[in-house]
Amino acid sequence: MLRKLCFLALPAVALTAGCAHPWESVLDGNLYTRTHMNRFPVAITAVDGVYSLQNPRYVDAGVRRLTVEAPPVGGMREPVRKEFDFKVERCVRYWLAAQRATALSPDFELVIDHAELVPGCQPHGATRPVQAVMPAQLDKPIPVPKR
Predict the structure, then answer these.
(1) Could you tell me the residue range of the domain that residue 60 belongs to?
(2) Is the pLDDT of residue 145 over 70?
(3) Does 140 reside within a domain?
(4) pTM of the model
(5) Residue among 55, 61, 63, 68 at smallest CA distance from 25
(6) 3-class SS at 106?
(7) SS3 10
(8) Does any domain span residue 81?
(9) How many domains does the chain have?
(10) Quick check: 104 and 62 in contact, CB under 8 A?
(11) Of 38, 92, 112, 116, which is the most buried if we count CB atoms within 10 A?
């Protein structure tokens, strides 16, 4: 009986071992660095109109419509919600943040706090590991923290 179970479980393990994960990239709303003035964590409430409070969000590559909430400023109760078009590259983990002009300004821009390769993911079907992937944001430079 035990042998039969092993032979039944073996093909299932072999089928799932071929793909590491069904998603291509990760969007994280937590801060990666804490050295930038007026930079705050965000809550990614929706991706392409699909609402969820899951953090981080696992998405496929391509241009995505993000609904993002930044924490409320002093004297306010409600978070500030905005929508952005964001180009997601394959096999990249993004740490997104809200950059404000001042600590009391409710308006913010969505910035990439940090980006790095997803471990074990091969971008564009590469057969060998890629050393670096530079994510492309829609006509904006990517802020890279100093080390």
Answers:
(1) 28-147
(2) no
(3) yes
(4) 0.69
(5) 61
(6) coil
(7) helix
(8) yes
(9) 1
(10) no
(11) 92
